[in-house]
Amino acid sequence: LYGIDKAKDSIRKNNFSILVEGQMDLILSHQAGYRNTIATSGTALSDSTVSKENVVSNLGLVRRLSSNIVLSFDADKAGANATIRAGKIALSLNMDVKVVEMPEGVDPADLIGKTGIPAWREAIKNSKHIIEFLLNKVLKNYENDGRKAGREIKEKILPFVNAVGSSIEKMYFLKKISDASSIPLDALQDDLKKIEQEFKYETEEIKEAGEILTKIYRKDRIERNLLGIALWQQTLPEPVVDFKTIFEKLGDIGEKYKDTKEDLIFEAEVSHTDNDNLEKDVAEMFLNFEEENINEELNKKMSELKREPEGEKGKKILQEINELIKKKEEIKNGRLNKK
Q1: Residue 300 to residue 91: CA distance in whole angstroms
Q2: Model pTM greater than 0.70?
Q3: What is the helix (H) or strand (E) element at residue 39, kind and residue range?
Q4: pLDDT tens-digit profile of 259-274?
Q5: Neighbours of 102 (CB within 10 A)
């Protein structure tokens, strides 16, 4: 994702992000006052060679800032594919997804550059929920053929309804589809049940990836906190904690945060200047860090066990899982003994 560092404060403040396709779209949207705009790398979201995990990871990063997202990709085939892929995954991550309707062959940069900033503002203001956006397209394309419209709704729209996490929201969209298309609600519900079974594995896979991401972000926060403390203590004439040991234990993760060094120092200084228990807190952070590493490994092993529950391989994986659980118990007991 391009521009997320510059956009993150505005995304939090406005409680939504705008995702565009090109860097020129990004630049002009920022110039138009929408600093909550970020960009994908070309067709990264529509390219089937880009793993689903990578798409989940990118959208998960955006979700940390706000669960509301507006998609505005180019009005061509690649842009439509990117909207479909990103939209469905974002819904599965419990994000509220809207789409900007662009004129055929026009991208945000064209709209802003040729028509002006007010046109871009109006387009964002009139953005529709992705399910409504897709429904309008289907009904427009097949307004004289109810049978084909029904088939398109089943194949192209119900998978998006299925991706919505809330049962109440699912029913809301089913009623909306029923009212707009004159398809009986019970028929839509029957087809949705079939879709749920058809896409069960995909939905579980995305949900699992989202849960793993949440755990990874927790680990990132611990890393960030520890590194910030070490960098801050390194600047002090009389450090309170052994920053060299922190650096050694963290290894080469400093490279990951090299562009945010000053931010990390500032965060640590603000959070821990009056902390009389900094040494104990650092020790606890390392225990939490170790637990997150174990949890990461446990998730991997549990996935492996699902794939190969039987035979020698299954026994070996189960043994490894038990060892990891034992390590977690040792950390827990160590904490209790200190109290």
Answers
A1: 24
A2: no
A3: strand 37-39
A4: 778 878 877 887 787 7
A5: 18
Q: Which two tokens stand for residue 262?
A: 């000053």
The DSSP line for 44-113 is TTT-TTS-HHHHHHHHHHHHHH-SEEEEE--SSHHHHHHHHHHHHHHHHTT-EEEE--PPTT--HHHIII
Q: Which residues contact 331 (CB under 8 A, 6 or more apart)?
A: 287, 290, 291, 294
Report yes or no: 100 and 71 within 8 Å, Cβ to Cβ: yes
- CATH 3.40.1360.10 for domain 4-201: yes
At 46-91, the pLDDT tens digits run 555 455 666 776 787 788 889 999 999 988 888 888 899 889 889 9
DSSP 115: I
- How far the first Cα of the chain sits from its last, in Å, is 45
Q: Which of 270, 278, 291 has the alpha carbon at shortest distance from 219?
A: 291
Q: Enumerate the CATH 3.40.1360.10 domain ranges in the chain, comma separated.
A: 4-201
Q: How far is CA 184 from CA 214, 269, 279, in A?
A: 39, 61, 65
Q: Which residues on neighbouring strands pair with residue 78, listed in sequence order?
A: none
CA neighbor of 315 nearest in space, from 305, 328, 325, 329? 305
